[in-house]
Structures are given as C-alpha cells and as structure tokens.
Design a protein that fits this description.
The structure is a homotetramer.
Chain A: E1 30-31, E2 34-35, H1 36-40, E3 42-45, H2 46-51, H3 72-89, E4 93-97, H4 98-101, H5 108-127, E5 132-137, H6 156-175, E6 180-183, E7 189-190, H7 198-219, E8 224-227, E9 237-238, H8 243-252, E10 259-264, H9 265-270, H10 275-285, E11 288-292, H11 311-323, E12 332-334, H12 345-372, H13 374-382, H14 389-396, H15 399-408, H16 420-428
Parallel strand pairs in A: 3-4, 3-12, 4-5, 5-6, 6-8, 8-10, 10-11, 11-12
Antiparallel strand pairs in A: 1-2, 7-9
Bound molecules: cobalt (II) ion (8 copies).
Catalytic activity (chains A, B, C, D): alpha-D-xylose = alpha-D-xylulofuranose
Active site (chains A, B, C, D): 97, 100
Cofactor (chains A, B, C, D): Mg(2+)
C-alpha cells in the first residue's frame, strides 16, 4: 500500500454524504434489467491519470508524482498507485498505452522487455483486483520517431517499428484478457499537403489495419478491434477524421465487418459534430463499439479531455448507447485528464467520481426516457407515412415511377411541425 | 438587347488596361499544352447572379432587378440578361437550378410546364451563344415543403415530389446538352436528432441516389452525376458532410463508380478542411469531378459564397486539379454571390472578371510549379524508402513479419526534416 | 379573442401534469426572499414570436400566420395574438422593435404615423393585461437603406433617419412605461475594411449614443439605456463585439455611467466567451443590465437564437445574475425563435414554457448554491492570502518594493490545487 | 564561430538565385522614401528559434540542439548561435524572454544572477553585431508557479515574484538599449470562473501594469511599454483578449497614454478578427505599437505561430501599418516557430528568409497601393457626404434636431454600392 491516496477510503454509494462519495452511481442498482456497473462498464485511463505531467503548449510539468521517472521501480510504483485508485473508485476496467506503463528503453528490444516485465507485474496486480482490462493500445505518436506518422510514415522502417509495437501491445492485451484493442492515429495525417503523398499514406494505413486484423485472427484474440476517430491535433489533418470518414476507409479496405469505433466526445466536437451524432451514425452503420467519455470545452479549439459534467448532454449519450443495444465488449472510458492546476491526489479521485455520478444520472435519465416511450413514439409517428406498402414500393421502383405519382395524384404535400421544442421539453422532464 | 449592362462592352484581355478588362485571363493562351479556357472551363451560376435578392438573416432584399417577379415574361428577361452577362464575360458555361429559371407554379404540373417552356427559351438563347451548360440541378431546399428534407423527408409524398423534380431537371439537362448533373442536399440532414431517424433517412438518400443513377442510364445521359458535399447550413447536420463522408456513402450504396464530387471551397472550410485537401482526397479515391470556386470568409461561421480573391490559395487548388489530370466533364463554377451591398450591374461583371483573373493566375502558377518539378521531386524523395522491393514486400506480408525485422536488424529509424517552410517558400516563387 | 391559440388555456403551475403546464416555474414561489416572477422578470419578444417568417439563407417563409401582411388591421391582429400569448404564458414583460409592430410606410412620416397608432393600440391592450414593456428598440438593420449601417452609415441622411427612428422609439418606450431602451447595432460594423473608415464610423457611433443618452435625459426617461453586444452577423465585424469592447467604447465616449449591457447568450458564444463570463465581466465593470436568454447551437457558426434548454448552463447564468444583485430594470428576455419547422401555435407556447421552466430550475439551483455557500467560501479561501495588510500594501507600493521582498524573504511560492473538478462536482449537487 | 549553421553563408539579395537568398527583401531598397530595413524593422525571436524543443500536446522534443540543457555554458553557446543566425539573416533586431536566455536557478536570486550574467554576455555579442534589441519580456507562464497567473495569481507572493521578474527584465531591456518592453499575459486569465474572482484579478492586473509604467518612468526607460493581446491559450480566457479589450482596460486604469499594442496575427485570428482589423482599430485608438508577424492555420483552433507565407494577406497588414504612419519604436517580430518536423538548421534560416521576402513583397505592394491612391480615393468618396457643414453640424446637434430633418426635408436616402469586389480586384493588381 503506497501512501499516495492516504486518507482516502474506497468510495461508497451514499447520496446524503457530505464527504467524497457516490451520490448517484450505485454499481448494483438495476436499470433496464441490468446492473449499472454492467451497463456503464467504466474504465480509468493510465495515460491521463498517471503519466501526463500537466504540461500545455505554454508550460511544463505541474504535477509532482513520486513515480515520475524512467526506471522499472517507478513503473511498478505507478502500477501500485493505479490499482489503489481503481479500488477506491471501484472501476471494473482500465486502459493503457504501452508508453504509459513501461519506461522507454534504448532500443526496441529493451522497450519490449520493459513492457513485458511490467505487463506481468500488472497481471499480478489484476489477480488481487476486480479491475479488468477494457483495452490496450500503442502510443505511436509521442516519440520523435513518429513525428511524421507511424503506419503512414515516409520511412518504411517506422512502419516496421509500428508493426512491432502493435504486435507486442496486441499480444499483451490478449495475455491480460483485454476485451478490445484500440488504434488512435494521432500522427496518421499530415502537417502540410505540400510534403504529403496522401494516396500513398492512406494505402499504408489501410494495409496496416488489415495486417492488425489478420494478426488478431492469427493469435485468436477474441476482443474487438476499435479505431478512435479524431479530425486533427496533433496533426493538421488526421485520416481518421470522424465516424463517417472511418466508415468509408473500412469499406475501402474491406474491413467494415472487422473493426468498430471508439468514439470520444471531445473528438466529435472538434470534427463539428455532436457526440450523439457520432454514436447514432456508428450504430446505424453497425460499427458502434465503445466510448471515451471526456468532453471538450466548447470555447477552446483543441482537445481539452475534461471529465464530463453536463448531465443533459450525457443523458443523450447513453440514450444513443441504449438504443444501440448497449455495450458488448465496449465501455465508458474516461480518456480525461485533470486540469493542470488540480494538483492534489484527491482531485484525481474527485474528477473520476464526479464523472461516474454524472454518467449514472445520464444513464438513468436515458433509461427513463426509453421506458416512458414518448420520444420514440413521436419519432415513429413522424415517419409513419413510410410504413404503407405504397411508400415502400416507391423505394424499390424507379425514378420515373415515383415521379409519375405527383401529377397523376395531384400531390401537394404540406409540411408538418418538427416539434423540436416540445421534444427538448420532454427530454428535460428526465434530466 | 436589354439595357441592364448598358455601357459595359465584352471584356478584352488587356493587361495594361485601366478599364474593366482581363489582366491575366486570356482564353486562348496555351498552358501545359491546352488553352486556358479548356483548362478552367468557367461557369457562371444563374442562382447567385440573377435570382438571389441580397437577403441575409437580418435583412431583406437589397438588389432591385428589373426581372424580379413571378411571371414568365420576367423569367425570359432574366434569361436575356444572363446571356448578355455570359457574352460580356466570355464564359464557356453556365449552371442552373430549376427554381432559378422558372416561376413556381400553383401545382407541380404548372411548375413543370413553366420550366419546360423556359428550358426551350434558353436552348434558343444557347443557339446564338458560345455558352454551354456545365450542369443543371434541382432546388429541393428553398420551398417550405422541403423544410424537413427532400429524399430524406418523413413524408413519402415529398420523396415523390423530389423524384419528379430531379427527373424533369435531368431530362432538361440532357436536352440542353449539359455535361453534368449535380445534387446538393441542403435539407438532406437534420435540425435535431430528437425527431430524426438517421438510419432510415440515410437509406432513403441512398436509394434516391441509386434511382437517379439508374434513370441517367435509362435515358442515356452521358454526363457525370456529381454530389456536392457540405457539412451544415441550412441543416444543422447534412449527410453529405465532406468528400470522405460521401465516399463512404457511395461505397455503402454501391455507387462509387457512378458518382463524382462537385467540391466547393467554402464547404471544405466549413467542414474543417482546406480546399486542396478535399481535392486531393477526391482525386486519390477516383471521385474527383468539378469545383465550385467560391470562398468563405475565414472569420464567418457560415457559407459566404464569395468570389475567390487569394491567388496563393487558388494556385494550390489548380495544382491539385492539374495533378488529378484536369477537368473532363467538370469545370470551374462560380457558385458565388455578390456582397449584398454590391448593387450595381458593374459589380456583377467585376466580381466575375476579378475571379477569372485570380483563377488564371492560379492556374499559370500551378502549371509553372508542375513544370518546374521541384515540389514533386521533393515529395517523391521523401517517400523514396518505400520504393525498395523489401519495403513493398512488407506491405504484402504480415504483422509479425514486419515486426520481426525491428529487432532482427536492430532498427533505429531517425526522423528527417519535413521541410515545410522550404516547400512553402518554393510555392511562393510561383505565386 | 382570436382563435390562433384555440384550445390552449393559460398555463398553470402543475408539476405532475401530463399536459402543457409549468413543472418548475411558479411565479409566486419565493426564492431568496423574492417571488420568482420578480427575480426572473420574463419577457417575450415580438420579433421572433410574431414577425419572423421562418426563413433562413437557403429557404423562405415556413410559418403561415394569419397576421402576415402589411396593413394596420393585420398589425392589430398580431397585437391581439401577442397579448393572448402573454396571457397564456403569464409573462410580466414583452419587447418590441418598431418594425415588428407596425407596417412600413411609403415615407418616414407614414411609418411614424403607423407606429404611433399601433403604439396606442398596444397601450390599450396593456391596460387589460399584467404584461408590461421591458424594452423597446429600433430595427435599424433589416431595410436595405441600412445595409451599410445606421449611425455608422457613409450617408449622413441615414444617420438622420436613424436618429429620427430612435427618437420615435424612445418616445414610444417612455409612453408605454418601458423600463429600458435597447440598442443593437447589427449593421454598425463592416463587410470589408477596404471600403470602411473605421475611425470615422466609430466616432459616428459614439456621438450617436451620446445623443441618445442626452435625449433620454431631455425627455426624462427613467429607464436604462442598454447596448446589446454581438461580434458579427449580419456584419462581418460589429463594433459592439462583446462586453469588454463596449466597455472601452463607453469609456472613450464618456458614457460608462449612462449605459448598461443587454447580454445574449448566443452572442457571447459567437464572441468566443461563455455567457457567465460576459455576465461576470459586466457586473465587475458596473455595467450589467439585462439578458437575452437564448442560446446558440455550439456546432453552428451563426446566431441560432434557440430557447434555452440546458439547466446546468442556465444555473451558472443566474448564479452570476444573483451575485450581481439581480435585475433592477432588466429582465430575462427570450430573444428566441422557434425552429423554422415548428409550425404549430402550440410550438410557440411550448418553446416559451419549456424555457421558463429551465430558467426556474436554473434560478433555484443558483439560489441553493449561494445559500449553501461552499462555492463562495472556496473562492474566498483561494484568495485569502491577499487579505493581509502586507499583501494589500504591495498593491499601493511600487514595483521595486514588491520585487525587493522576493530575495529579502527568500520567497519560493508553491502552487496550490485549483480544484476545478471538485468545484464542478459541487455545482452538480444543485443542478 | 560554432558549426551549427556550417555551410550557410549570410544571405544575399539575389532575385535570380537558385540557392538560399532573398528574392524580394533588399534592406537598402527605398520604398516611400525609406529603406526597407527601416520600414520593416525585422526581429528574430529567441524563444521559438532557440528555446522551443518541438513539443506539442501529444509529443515531446523533436529538435536536438547542442545548446539544450541548463548550464551557463550552454546558454552562452545558444547566444553564439543566435547571433550567427542574426548575421546570416541580417536582421536588425531580436527579442527575448528572460527564460529563453538564462538557465532557471534554484532560487529567484540564482535565476537573477544567471540572467544578469547572460545579459552582459549578450551585450558583448551586440557590440560585434548590427542586431539590436527590439524588445525584452518576462516569461511569467511556463513555470508551474505561474499556473494560476502571475500578477493575477491568488497568491500575493507570486505577484511579488512577477514584479521582481519584470523589474529585472525591464532593467536588462534598458541596459541593452531595447526599444520596447512587452507584456504578454498568457496565464493572466482563468481556467474556470468557478474558482476565479474576476474582478479582483483584473484589479491586480491593472495595478501591476500601472506599477510597470511607474517603474519605467522612474528608471527613465525611453522605450514603449507594449501589451500583446491574446484571447485564450494557454488560459481558457485571457484578460487581454484583443485590442478593443485592452483599450478598455487601459482606459479603466488610466494607462491609455502610456501603453501601446503588440499585435500578433495568430492572436487576432483566435479572437475572431482579421489582423488588419486589429491594426486599424489600434491605430484609430492611438495605441498601435508593434507586430508579431506570425500566422495561424485557419483550420487549427490553437496558436500555430507559423511564419507568414501569404503575400495578399501580408500586403493588407503593411497597408494598415503604413496608414498608421509606420513603426516608430515597434517592428516586425517573427514570433514564429518552425514546424516541429523541420529539424535542420537550414529550415530555421529558410523559415525566416521566406517570411522576410513575403513581408518585403507585402510592404512594396502596400506602398504601391498607397501611391496609386485609388483605394483611398474610393474610400474618401464613399464618405464624402459627411464633409458638408450641415452633416458635421448634425454631429454636434441633438437627436431631435437630427430627427427633425427627416420629415422636414422628406428624406428618402438610397443605398449605394459598397463595391467590395471592385476594391478586392484593385488590391489584386498590386499583390
Ligand atoms: Co481527446
Ligand atoms: Co480518446
Ligand atoms: Co456554398
Ligand atoms: Co456550391
Ligand atoms: Co441573437
Ligand atoms: Co438579442
Ligand atoms: Co502566438
Ligand atoms: Co506573439
């Protein structure tokens, strides 16, 4: 037991507490026939919680953590503290990048050995914990070797390095019983088209993703392969811009049955979408997988990765998740970082706990909206005209046939109210 | 001859002129082995030039045109003036929506009859003119019946109305010898997800586009079917968000060999892209078709549809067009409107003439960059590592194979300068 | 009694109702020692509710109101319906532009006569109603004569026209017992700097505002003069960009004691601010006046003027209002329009009723946060170091004196947690 | 002589060169009666050129510079290389933050001693160089002690630290003959209003700036005090949002005659303005000082600090500078960083050289536009109506008087074309 979280006991569900506690999240509460824990499937992220030093483009490290440094001992200390946080929060899952959990070595081989050793150490920790691995992923963007891309790098040796990294991360994910493997291509894009062969780079990215999927099957990994879209930052333009873009990419490379989406609210916003749009689109295309439940600041033009705090927004999120059938291998990952001024250990606990409560409120509101049924009834009623055989026949007919009805029947269709304000009022009954 | 442009003679190429003239656009100048007119294939747009009254969300009509009104006589006067402008500008092409050229009737049948009559009148005008039809399109967004969509409307009768409208517009486009037919789905999206069945609406849109393509083949229309992407406005979210989104949509509905893109600079910007990105992406996916060469104001969050005026930006546009092989059926359409304070007939001529000069400068700069070859040589050199057989073999191999090389060969790839500033300096030698 | 709202009875406070009712807004409920009606001081806006036809840049009128048209009879009918809505909603206030309530005449004199006649008609309506005038304002932006500005127009005759318009509007506001007079300068800005004498135009605007203030005193108008900032739209740049800009403008023209702010959430967002920022800044500068409680869509780059629907955001709004001492002459105006697809009379009622409920929830949450006191205690504690005499002395001393302490005392100040997540969690206990 | 720039000779003006050279910037060329060097007054920035390691929020150091590290020897090496770059570029000025040029010490006193020592070293370098100091400034944002602000910090000891830092930087600026002193308040703002006493912080900031001005006079510093506005980043909101905001701030604290603006293009864009807007506004308010000539990427929502590369934009910049009378103490600083992939020493030279050429082209175009006079004549003509005595009298009269004319004279003012497209065409003759 480290003393990092000294004085902070595991959080209890206690709506009336004046201390640090869950006011809304009760893991065992049954919502729509399922425990909240099984609905929400919360995961904490190693990177933002334990590896990020608090820097921004105009300032350096603000956090002073006893595990900061590059030794294996410190990596183990970090893992010890991480599992202490998982216990305090009672989160069923966690996530990692390779670079979060192991010190970088002087060579690939040394990095890999460090990684394998710490993976075993974490597996040991998992044996004494309820917390499982939601997903692993490879950091192919922080080191300067990746500055011009990983799979899309102009240098084929970096493609090889990336392949080797993903291979070892996928192996480790399988070994740890991970339920998914995620690819986020922060550098798979460009800074300027002037030095970029966009077509070639997209082909490299497509082939790389095919190779990952092939390898998954080869080793018998049963989890899902997830791609996390983001439009830009760090790149000026990233090939995995948004859900619609990735869908086209998957179709182009024959991967639409193999790969699903890990959708982050902040990235949706950067791409000019609402989060619920991205979720609804992914669900409608059959590629919905998992979510990163961290918001952006609407006034900031970059990825702020903040814990969620707006219940009405979160309710719409889980409304789409529930309509999509809920998570299977996916879950609710907090890819969220503390504000860099939130220096204290208790901030880390409070950030997660507040977010978990917000998600619990959102889930319960979403469930209530579904059970109430008014929203879906009004939606169905709006499209009821399409339920007639004649209307459906029009869709299987031809343009001239559809057109002929207009004059033949003297059609003069009148618009009907979209009732947006009424629908928003109905949502507000539940949030 | 109307007197609308009284005193304005057809523009001449006269670099030294102190009057209204082309300073850079000489239709007959040969660039890269082709006349500039044949490269640029300029088109003027009926809508913005002759039908838009100058309104904005906070103010009404500013233009007072003698042809404003709803009679056939006024529609013919408008056509007369349009062709006078085409002659003054010597543009080889024009474009229309049905609603631009004919008065709305009291019924579909009356609107169609108005339309067919004015189409014949315009065909008569074309016989005395060099100006041809680049593309026709249907206005399925202005009338209140389309407020909730055309093909994606909850009311199947509006789907039928839209089918009938596109049928008549495609028939007219063919009759007028049009080289393309464009679909822009300004209302094919939603205001709020709360009242929207996104999956159903996308299916309707997909089927509609298939029906259009089938009808094209049925009537033997030889032109291209083009979709014009736009992320939003008027809708909060539009299904044809950007080139990548439309590509996925075409793949989903089996249309990727049938449909190409009409890409507008302003829409690229609204979607968070540079224009050259959208062009390069479309070319790399084999779906590049035509362009709407009108810019947005970078400080305004809506579609300002301004004439292009920045030569360095336009040079990068034509650089991508030339690299894509140039236009075949497509061209450079000015989907641009005067600022609403630009009341005078001469403003309409000057807006187009300035834009044509800017495009001519851009094209010549792009051609010079290609002929110089430095940019492409530097790009090729950056990826030269991939030209080896070993690197190519890696792409056809598997993940483990690619990975194995890293440790076996002790790879330690070093980043190389991306040389962005140098490349930008090279571009600046030509613009 | 018109039949426009036929079947819609005045709304009751009935939290358990399944019909149209207030679930949270009880005008007589006492919050922090004051009735909610007296806290919130709701106002309905004539323009968006009764005059806006539902157009957007890509489509025309969607609403079909029996009072649309240009006769005095229709203007009276519109007023009748307006007061019926005020009664149904039980709103204590309304607001108008001159152009909302009277038909435009063929000359200024005719417009003025129309205006004066309808003002008297409305005064008659007010006598039978509880609803008072929160503010009047002049529409100096819709007519084409204002396309290049009102007070800032290059044509001095339009300055005169604007003066005459404001004079008659201020006279009418006084006659109707209005509590404020608002100026919003939608065209007081520019489309392009190339044709703009920015210095001259700002001087014209400053002198105009001085003249308005002088006239207010001359006629003994007791209400407040309010300026409503907006950064752009319809202009590319508007001189009243945001609260900070207007403050500088008031200081420049010696008006900071005479003019206060009418702050709109949507305009705050367009200017890159949160609404609470603009409120807190205005309060700190002593120029807080009134609010337009209508939101923008965060994904749309223009002014969507939607009814508020997010309780956590609205709670932060009223938290700032309460900290500023609450409204005096000001109030909560819904400068909000229905979505253009919301065609039905009930939509108009539901839009306002939902917004009033959201505001009531926000107010009650804000009051509870203030009564709880934790937020303010934590804020005060954060700055407690400044409460020492030594710290205060430093502010009245000089730079060298402040500097000298650092080495003399060997200062090594350590950062302390900003506790943002904890504070956000506290807010979430109340919303 | 270090070997960092080995093989790179001082750049020559040689338009026909195929090597690294100035194609447009000839320091001695006379434009509008003044040498270009004296017009443009180029400065290189120590921070971006020599101290920035190439990091971004998703990746660390990419540059490997021999002077990276924390010793005085390395600081001297950095200075040696800096002056070698100044010589190669023939720039007349440079700029620094204290933290750029000296290693941070373990205490304030040690940092100060390091600073004073390196200041003397740089003064020695200056004696052998033509390059002078344009401005010095204090870095009050990178170290974690400033995470919650410098002058606006909740901790008065950090106010004291900031005072001591600015005092030593202003002393050093004076000692080095600097022509200006700049304050940029990257952390003078907030992350969340919830923990912020906005009024108190603004008062602290105002008093701090007064103290700086008082100290300037006390020590007899003859240069200008400049404030550099920026709306956000690193803070969510920064008190020095834009020129208009700072103007109000200066008025509030009685500093408008004492402080001028250092305006950066990228910051203008982040604030929703064009660069030329900020310049024109500052000039019209009498607070124009100097410029940071580095652009943002319009598609990226953060401060990219790129070298300028768009001649038409830069021409409009210098058009405003020339209209404002040109620089006095100010100049053209490149507060620009290489892209993080531009690893080579030659990139640093090329980035600056390309920018200097772009500025030279912009200046010459701006001068030509002024000499041509058409733009200014058209502007003056547009406002000519205001030149009559009657129009001017209206401005000194009262509202009722201005109003009375409208009906008395039967005014019916007609809008005139704003001629934006024609004006843009005229600009394009020169760029
Ligand atoms: Co993120
Ligand atoms: Co994420
Ligand atoms: Co457009
Ligand atoms: Co277009
Ligand atoms: Co508004
Ligand atoms: Co408003
Ligand atoms: Co900057
Ligand atoms: Co700067």
């Amino acid at each position: 037991m480290t003393d990092f979280f000294k004085g902070i006991a595991p959080l209890q569900f206690d709506p009336a507490s004046s201390e640090l506690a869950f006011r809304h999240y009760d893991a065992d509460e049954v919502v729509l026939g399922k425990r909240m824990e099984d609905h929400l499937r919360f995961a904490a992220a190693w990177w933002h919680s334990f590896a990020w030093p608090g820097g921004d483009p105009f300032g350096g490290q603000t956090f002073e953590r006893p595990w900061f440094g590059d030794t294996m001992d410190l990596a183990r200390l970090k893992a010890d503290v991480a599992f202490e946080m998982f216990d305090i929060l009672n989160v069923p899952f966690f996530c990692w990048h390779d670079a979060d959990i192991r010190p970088e070595g002087a060579s690939f081989a040394e990095s890999r050995r460090n990684f394998e050793e710490i993976v075993d150490y974490i597996i040991g920790k998992m044996e004494g914990s309820k917390t499982k691995l939601l997903w692993g992923t490879a950091n192919l963007f922080s080191h300067r070797r990746f500055m011009a891309g990983a799979a899309t790098n102009p240098d084929p040796d970096i493609f090889a390095w990336s392949a080797a990294t993903v291979k070892s991360c996928l192996d480790a994910t399988q070994k740890m019983g991970g339920q998914n493997y995620v690819l986020w291509g922060g550098r798979e894009g460009y800074e300027t088209l002037l030095n970029t062969d966009l077509k070639r780079e997209r082909q490299q990215a497509g082939r790389f993703l095919q190779m990952v999927v092939e390898y998954k099957h080869k080793i018998g990994f049963k989890g899902a392969i997830l791609v996390e879209p983001k439009p830009q930052e760090p790149s000026k333009h990233q090939y995995d811009f948004d859900v619609a873009t990735v869908y086209g990419f998957l179709k182009e490379f024959g991967l639409e049955g193999e790969v699903q989406m890990n959708i982050e609210q902040g990235h949706a916003i950067l791409a000019g979408h609402s989060f619920e749009h991205e979720l609804a689109l992914a669900a409608s295309l059959g590629i919905f997988g998992s979510i990163d439940m961290n918001r952006n600041d609407y006034q900031s033009g970059w990825d702020t990765d903040q814990f969620p705090n707006n219940v009405p927004e979160v309710a719409l999120t889980y409304y789409e998740v529930l309509k999509a059938g809920g998570f299977t291998t996916g879950g609710t990952n907090f890819d969220a970082k503390l504000r860099r001024q939130s220096l204290d250990p208790v901030d880390l606990i409070a950030g997660h706990a507040g977010a978990m409560d917000v998600c619990a409120r959102g889930l319960k509101a979403a469930a209530a909206m579904l059970e109430d049924g008014t929203l879906e009834a009004m939606r169905a009623e709006r499209y009821a005209g399409w339920d007639s055989a004649e209307a459906q026949a029009m869709l299987t007919g031809d343009l001239a046939g559809a057109a002929a009805r207009v004059e033949a029947e003297g059609l003069d269709p009148q618009p009907r109210s979209g009732r947006q304000e009424i629908l928003e009022n109905i949502v507000n009954r539940f949030v």
